[in-house]
Amino acid sequence: MSKGLVLITGGAGFIGSYTAEELLRAGYRVRLLDNLTPPVHTGEWPDWLPDCERMAGDVRNRDDWQKALRGVDYVVHLAAHQDLLPNFSQFFHVNSVGTALLYELVVAEKLPVKKVVVASSQFVYGEGRYQCAKDGEVFPDGRDVAGGHWDPVCPKCSGVITPLPLLETHANPKNQYSISKYSQELIAVALGRNYGIPSVALRYSIVQGARQSFRNAYSGVLRVFTLSHLAGRPAPVFEDGRQLRDYVNVEDVARANRLVLESEQANYEIFNVGGGKGYTVLEFAGIVSDTPPSVTGEYRVGDTRHSVSDITKLQRLGWQPTKTPADSVRDYVAWIRGQKLDKDYAAEALATLRQMGALRKAT
Predict the structure, then answer these.
(1) Which of 37, 148, 291, 294 reaches 20 to 30 Å from 117, CA-CA?
(2) Which domain range does residue 296 map to?
(3) Are 235 and 288 spatial neighbours (Cβ–Cβ below 8 Å)?
(4) How much is the pLDDT for 84?
(5) What average pLDDT does range 89-107 have in this prediction?
């Protein structure tokens, strides 16, 4: 007997496809909603998707939401616009307004949705949480990346500070993507509580594994480093490569999605979903390839220096990461070798970021 019907928005995407598989194995019926648009998609449903109901539609469209929500028991809302280009309004049209429309329709039509799980990002933390020897715990508001000063300093004494794990109690988003993701959290948890719609927001760390789009300029270092390696080029590393990042495998993320969907303890809460360990970008480049990377001295506008999430809160619900970055690299390389690469996507993405001013050289 089915456990109910789950609507996954962004269901044709990387995380969506794995979440669909996880939920199907657990006995749910699954409906996928996706607009299938570039740069992630090509207008067609990917051939790796599991056998479940599919609907083409856009979360900005009220009619598409109405059709997709018919008969639905649960929603896993993954659809999002994500890149670092300065098309600011699109982030809020898709991420913020799309999420608000979901709750608007559930309330207006008194839909019997039992829970909503919303995807957020660890980058809502901004520069995050640090320890100063003089001033204790501090939260820097920015850093002088344009001048090549990669590390933030204490906002009180301007002294050296040490990064601390990121806790769910803090947020200070600094770019268009993270601001829009934080707005999704606020919409989900606040409106969900106000109207009795159990809701959960998950702050994903950098999610990795097979099926991650090679067309999307935002999709991260695994794509860029792997495509550069296969093209015989050194991996391009921004800043000085010593920035810390937290990588989590997509299969572990799919399990986290199901866990909070099924756990009443998760209702109206926010959880970090991470790998439990930080790696410098240089260390990660070494996992992808033995070829020494190229440290470019460039920086992404609005990027953070260190992002390593504390996953204790989700662990208390019984979740643990089971895969390492090496596992994700192995899976992605095996998958990408089977894809049809009709152009140099990595080089094109970097050129686009530079042209749009989203990737700049420090002076």
Answers:
(1) 37
(2) 5-129+165-361
(3) yes
(4) 67
(5) 96
